[in-house]
# Entry
Amino acid sequence: MTPEDFRKQGYALIDWIADYLEGVERFPVASTTAPGWVRDQLPAHPPTETEPFDAVLADLDRIVVPGLTHWQHPSFFAYFPANTSYPSILGDLATAGLGVNGMSWATSPACTEVETLMLDWMAELLGLPDRFRSDGPGGGVIQGSASEATLCAILAARQRATQGAVNVAGVPGNLVAYTTSQAHSSIEKGVRVAGVGTDNLHVVAHDAAFAMRPDALEAAIAEDRAAGLRPFFVCATAGTTSTTAFDPVPELAAICRREGIWLHVDAAHAGIAALCPELRWVNAGLDQVDSYCTNPHKWMGVNFDCDLFWVADRAALLGALSILPEYLRTAAGEAGAVIDYRDWQIPLGRRFRSLKLWFTLRCDGVAPIQSMIRDHVGWTQELAAWVAADDRFEIVAPHPLDLVCFAHRGGDEATDAMIAAANASGSAFFTRSVADGRSFVRVCVGGRMTERRHVEAAWALLQSTANTLP
# Structure
């Protein structure tokens, strides 16, 4: 492909993306293809001759699009939002075009410094405590996902608890971490990867609102210390994936501070709500925690992957992850004058991910994102009122933001049948979940292109499928 071809086909691809996004509502929300169908449409062996780009675009329409679940569809109410936006897409295009590896400041100073500034900008926009700013002992970095942020927090906590001895002698078998059954699965994966092990992840009891009980955490810590174990890490969740439950961070922080335990807060989805000043209650207790993360690639419109991860004191994180071979040494790094983000993450290499955040904040601004969040929260509360007024259903969890969880009073079989029938219609897509042994439907109102009419239609669909149940 020549530069001239690139210009021509690049324009064609931009047109294709815009046409897809503006017309995504015409597709069934979830793919209806059978397992293996997409692969069967493609040649079994790589091409021996080049093909025109028009043929590639045609196969996007013919093969790829039918195999997609359309996360940008306005009637996508499953899982969590995964919004994108036009400035963000262009930022990613610029990242690909520049093709830099920002593993250290020296390998592209702009890659590091723009990212550091974006984390400071976002801390200000979200109303986060100053302890997360880069001009103090803490600071922030863009991770690929909240799962990576959680792992980095676990490693930093392990480093602090062992005073670095783990890097020489291996992981002590008596380290213990804590979370609830409602927390994200990445916490269990993180303790596995960190060598702590699943058996040493202790599940703390939750209350009727699915939030961690501080008294249960205190009791678990005391019991484990009495057994000769070493509590080192607690993961609290500000808006769980399943039900948007909020653990009582201020109370948990007081316990962790007293016990010398690292407290990480996972606010992957809900944390972005703090862009709206009236929703900054989601930040409660963050002035006392060790690390925090939230995802612009969910509710903000900055396309995946973009997790914002902050630490109050970067020393333990760098101690856990910094390895400096001679070929990466620089005078600026040795002097401590710059940040080398390779020491803030698991891999060495890193993309210029901050550009899509920078483009979004400059070209769209915060006001339309705030308006979208407010609409979603308002429509969610309307939906909750509609559900509460229908005596066939029961709301099973609090709904402070953009998620309503409810079950059919006929039991799990009725709930599951309702979800399956609604999803099979193709006109909307919902997620089933289970909490305390009870099945329920999650309706997450978070799509950038979702309007009130889509929420109304989703509710009508669930009502109509409930009507068909025996």
Q: What stands out?
A: The mean pLDDT is 93. DSSP finds 17 helices and eleven strands in the chain. The longest strand covers residues 230-237. The CA atoms of residues 305 and 410 lie 40 Å apart.
